[in-house]
From TrEMBL, chain A:
The chain crosses the membrane at residues 150-175, 187-205, 211-230, 242-264, 270-295. The lineage of its organism: Bacteria, Pseudomonadati, Pseudomonadota, Gammaproteobacteria, Chromatiales. Keywords: Membrane, Signal, Transmembrane, Transmembrane helix. Residues 1-25 form the signal peptide. It comes from Thiorhodococcus minor. It comes from the Bacteria. This is HupE/UreJ family protein. InterPro entries: Put_HupE_UreJ.
TrEMBL record, chain B:
The chain crosses the membrane at residues 39-59, 66-86, 92-109, 116-141, 147-168, 175-196. Pfam families: HupE_UreJ (PF04955). InterPro entries: HupE_UreJ. This is HupE/UreJ family protein. It comes from Thiorhodococcus minor. It comes from the Bacteria. Keywords: Membrane, Transmembrane, Transmembrane helix.
Length: 334, 200
């Protein structure tokens, strides 16, 4: 299986190189808008807009016209986001049905979590996507609506995580046979589900900069292994790719957790959000693997024959991209 | 504001290659690369001809399939890069429709074209749509990222489409592929009639 997958990987990597900017791998940090009731008429909003490619986020906050600001807003620039807080006077009974817009969000790949907390203890949580950059505040929502939102969020998160996909692609090149493929993908899935759960529930955490560097290192690690497969050599990774998939999968799980913010999320909704986000990630990963396997079969059917020197291209491309990201992200630590 | 339905995006897919400056690229929410890929999938005007060509190449065997898989995305990319530097031209929707009508007819007739002719058709079709996409992307202020998304989608569809047909040996299966070609041609005829009525 490995030869044709290597050829296919060459095509995909060429496009990946053209497609990915220097920091594309982790620019999908979500935004967060908290709307908290303080008294009958006074509300506080906290808008956390992530830094987007090193710049303030292009999305703005457009509040309903009858929400009157009280005093000056407080703005703080954090390392990874800009935080905007404002106290507002909101006519009693007018919150339900109010529309909050995020003009500019449609030009980005950022999702925004909107969390509403009322004095009576009721809570609401919604996900705003760039395809529809506004939210209509409502009371209770069917759990199926929330489940669908988190599922889509997980699916989109893996599609945007080109470093995660490159790692999976590297694993596909190394594995031999359907059984090894199933073992390896299952190990990766179990590992990243474990750390995604731990990180989302707040039981474990890793700071983003070293985590991103370590994820890049996992891609760099696969480059030489792909060369060994091409030379017909063997190694522990080639004999037992599931072990490597499991170990590095633990790191990738922390990376996935960056796409799911549970800050101020209603406690009852956290298990649903975690489960559906993870299902979305798995579906995206399975779709990617299925597409690669289908394309691999198609290349064989059409009897593509490439020059032997071109067969090493994917290994060098994976190694080069992994090395580039490792150096870039390591430099960001200092 | 009501969210645009899928059919609105399909309608936008018809409009964009026509070079209408008012048209917008479909938003996937995943950035311009995926926007481009999704645009092709929701543009029947380009997709039907692409499918017909891939299936026709598959009917003609692995060599024709390989040539189509190489020529289509390459010509689409080159045409697109050229189109990105050009001003939008008047509505050329009819040309795209006529192209997929012809490809549908060739597929329905199981035309015994040599592989080199398939490659020439792929170059012409890919170049034409690439050019139209490039000009339309310029008109809406988009860059090369959506074009790369379109080209990757073209590559995947051509590869999977051609490879799905090559192994078919049973007569009824090959006839089913030709029937698909007749449907493409029928859609092309309907579209041409609709366009003629609209401009008449």
């Amino acid at each position: 299986m490995t030869l044709a997958v290597r050829r296919l990987a060459a095509l995909l990597l060429l496009l990946a190189g053209l497609w990915s900017g220097p920091g594309v791998a982790h620019e999908s940090q979500p935004g967060l808008l908290e709307v908290r009731q303080l008294t009958t008429e006074r509300w506080e909003i906290a808008w956390r807009a992530p830094i987007y490619y090193g710049q303030p986020h292009p999305a703005r906050l457009a509040l309903p016209p009858d929400w009157q600001p009280l005093g000056e807003p407080r703005v703080r620039r954090l390392a990874s986001a800009e935080l905007y807080r404002q106290i507002l006077r909101v006519p009693p009974g007018s919150v339900d049905g109010s529309v909050i817009g995020f003009p500019g969000l449609e030009q980005t790949i950022t999702d925004v979590f909107v969390r509403l907390h009322r004095l009576d203890g009721s809570e609401m949580s919604q996900v705003v996507r760039p395809t529809e950059p506004q939210v209509v505040l409502r009371g209770e929502r069917p759990w199926t609506v929330s489940a669908r939102e988190y599922l889509a969020l997980g699916f989109h998160h893996i599609l945007l995580g080109i470093d995660h996909l490159l790692f999976v692609l590297g694993l596909l090149v190394i594995v031999r046979g359907p059984r090894m493929l199933i073992e390896t993908i299952t190990a990766f899935t179990l590992a990243h589900s474990l750390t995604l759960g731990l990180a989302t529930l707040g039981h474990a955490s890793l700071p983003a900069p070293p985590l991103n560097a370590a994820i890049a290192l996992s891609i760099l690690f696969l480059g030489p292994e792909m060369v060994r497969v091409w030379r017909g050599e063997t190694s522990f990774t080639i004999r037992h790719p599931w072990v490597v998939a499991f170990c590095f999968g633990l790191l990738h799980g922390f990376g996935f957790a960056s796409g799911l913010s549970t800050v101020a999320m209603p406690r009852a909704e956290i298990p649903l959000a975690l489960a559906m986000f993870n299902v979305g990630v798995e579906l995206g990963q399975l779709a990617f693997v299925a597409l690669i396997l289908l394309a691999h079969r198609a290349l064989r059917t059409l009897e593509f024959r490439w020059p032997r020197c071109a067969e090493l291209g994917p290994a060098y491309a994976v190694g080069t991209l992994g090395a580039y990201w490792t150096l870039q992200r390591t430099a960001m630590l200092f | 504001m009501r969210r645009p339905g899928h059919w609105s995006w399909v309608a936008a897919g018809w409009l964009l290659p026509a070079g209408a400056a008012q048209a917008h690229l479909v938003s996937s929410g995943l950035g311009p690369f995926y926007d481009g890929a999704l645009h092709l999938l929701l543009s029947p005007g380009a997709l039907l001809g692409l499918l017909a060509l891939a299936l026709l190449a598959g009917l003609r065997g692995p060599r024709a399939g390989r040539l189509a898989v190489i020529a289509l995305p390459t010509a689409w990319l080159l045409g697109g890069l050229v189109g990105l530097g050009l001003a939008p031209v008047p509505d050329l929707t009819w040309l795209g429709v006529a192209a997929f009508l012809v490809l549908g007819l060739l597929l329905a007739a199981d035309a015994k074209l040599p592989p080199i002719a398939i490659a020439a058709l792929a170059c012409a079709y890919g170049g034409l749509h690439g050019l139209l996409d490039g000009m339309a992307l310029t008109a809406i202020g988009a860059g090369t990222s959506p074009l790369l998304g379109i080209v990757l989608a073209v590559l995947v569809i051509a590869l999977l489409g051609a490879a799905a047909v090559v192994p078919l040996r049973v007569l009824w299966a090959r006839i089913a592929v030709r029937v698909a070609g007749s449907w493409v041609a029928a859609v092309g005829l309907l579209m041409l009639g609709w366009l003629a009525r609209g401009t008449g």
